[in-house]
Specification:
By secondary structure, this protein is an alpha/beta fold. The protein has six helices and 17 strands.
């Protein structure tokens, strides 16, 4: 099956279309509407999304919050520069991290941040060469991180973020992500209020986004790619709301691939979602997958040959999605984290 080869998810993207900064007004980004059955498209503005929603629908939002997970410091013995990127909290003071330069930070090595306010010791090596780090500090870690850490923007964004919270959604609630669920960045409180006034419900799930979601697919056969696990939460109340929507004939529309992956990971064959409290998922969705819960998807434009582009292709069809991407390129849409949005309905 040709669709299971990495090269079949490549598209040409001029570098100048990679958005470097968020728009001043979140909901004024452009919106490419892709009709799932016909493959037809419409060019809209994001706040027009209300025209495609109807009473009885349910929007599913990932309410994770990106933490300032990038720490810049020095190696304790040599004073050379080091960087630690927090990925996943393992225990109170212990994290799985990415360190740079990796070759110089081995188990037993130590780093110092903020003139000694925070210290770290490498205690082990995890998958993909990630490091297990134990931190030493006095006080509250989150407050120290807030003062010393930087937002972990993707490497294709070269500008420094002027307002830190622009890399969080307006409904971000629970700390824990190393990257934003970027489809949600387009919503404002006002737009969400308008949507709820229409009789559209909003359900929250939490998936703490790790960098594994964005890890390049290196294998030519995509089925050989290994996804990293990410931790999820769904409260009983939100599971019930989603299930009630389905039972009453409403549509479940996921805001972002992370919301989609959460629902599809923790639902049964009949599409009934269950509550979860800190369970991991490493689900990899690609063409051939049968969606159990999701009826519509709001998403940004994803990197060529990425697992996220494969998920979108599984939902709307690879040819339709790539045709829509080519159209977006020709019409100068903005791509990736701070870029424009797509609604697949």
């Amino acid at each position: 099956m040709s669709e299971l080869l990495k090269k079949d998810y490549y598209y040409e993207l001029p570098e100048e279309l990679i958005a470097q900064d968020p728009l001043d007004k979140r909901d004024e980004s452009r919106l490419l509407v892709l009709h799932r059955e016909s493959g037809g498209t419409e060019d809209r503005v994001f706040k027009d999304i209300t025209e495609y929603l109807k009473k009885g629908d349910c929007l599913v939002l990932n309410n994770t919050r990106v933490i300032p997970a990038r720490l810049l410091g020095v190696k304790e013995d040599t004073g050379s520069a080091v960087e630690i990127l927090l990925l996943k909290r393992l225990k109170d003071r212990e994290w799985e991290t990415i360190v740079r330069p990796g070759k110089r930070l081995r188990p037993g090595d130590r780093a110092v941040f903020g003139n000694g306010i925070l210290k770290a010791e490498i205690t082990g090596i995890a998958d993909e060469g990630n490091r297990i780090v134990r931190f030493e500090y006095e006080g509250i870690f989150e407050e120290i991180l807030d003062s010393l850490g930087e937002m972990p923007l993707p490497p294709y964004i070269k500008h420094k973020l002027k307002v830190r919270d622009r890399y969080n959604t307006v409904y971000a609630k629970y700390d824990g992500s190393a990257a934003a669920p970027t489809a949600g960045l387009h919503f404002t409180e006002e737009l969400l209020s308008r949507i709820r006034e229409m009789g559209v419900s909003t359900a929250a799930v939490t998936l703490h986004v790790g960098l594994g979601t964005f890890r390049p697919v290196k294998e030519e056969k995509i089925t050989d790619h290994h996804m990293h696990s990410e931790t999820c939460f769904i409260t009983p109340e939100n599971a019930e709301l989603i299930n009630k929507t389905k039972a009453e004939g409403g549509r479940v529309i996921c805001v972002g691939t992370t919301s989609c992956r959460t629902l599809e990971s923790f639902s049964d064959k009949e599409g009934r979602v269950r509550s979860v409290e800190g369970e991991d998922t490493d689900i990899f969705i690609y063409p051939g997958y049968s969606f159990k819960v999701m009826d519509g998807l709001i998403t940004n434009f994803h990197l060529p040959e990425s697992t996220l582009l494969m998920l979108v292709s599984a939902f709307a069809g690879r040819e339709k999605v790539l045709a829509a991407y080519r159209e977006a390129v020709s019409k100068r849409y903005r791509f990736f984290s701070f870029g424009d949005a797509m609604l697949i309905i």
